[in-house]
Amino acid sequence: MFYQIRRIVVKEGFSDQVVESFANRGGLMAQQPGYLEKQVLVKKVRRGEEEVMVMVQWESEEDWKNWEKSPEHIAGHKAKRGAGSEKPEYIIESSHDLYYVKG
Fold it and tell me: pLDDT tens, 39-66?
């Protein structure tokens, strides 16, 4: 198994917008071969920040790669960003990591 994990730190009060964004995009992903499940976790942190962790479980890295390069995934990102728009100002930082389940 394989996990794709996105960590997004936002200004306090904005975690719901990130959660909603991933909830709205989840339907097409769930139909992809190899998709197993998605979990969205929210953590309150100090200094007026919140952290959203999105963990998507796939049967294999290949299944995840197929989703990443699928027309549906690419079109979803283009629609979300719009022409020339930048990340929302409430996002402080974000990271993307890949993990293999070994035990």
Answer: 999 998 778 899 999 999 999 999 999 9
Q: State how far the Cα of 11 lies from the Cα of 28, in Å rounded to an integer.
A: 28
Measured in whole angstroms, the distance separating CA 25 from the mean position of its chain's CA atoms is: 9
Cα 19 to the center of its chain, rounded Å: 9
How many structural domains does the chain have? 1
CATH label of the domain that carries residue 86? 3.30.70.100
Decide: 34 and 63 in contact? Cβ < 8 Å: yes
Give Cβ neighbours of residue 82 (< 8 Å, ≥ 6 apart): none
Write the DSSP assignment of 26-79 as a string of letters: HHHHHTSTTEEEEEEEEEEETTTEEEEEEEEEES-HHHHHHHHTSHHHHHHHHH
pTM above 0.70, yes or no: yes
Does 83 have pLDDT greater than 70? no
DSSP 8-state secondary structure symbol assigned to residue 101:
-
Residue range(s) defining the domain that contains residue 96: 2-100
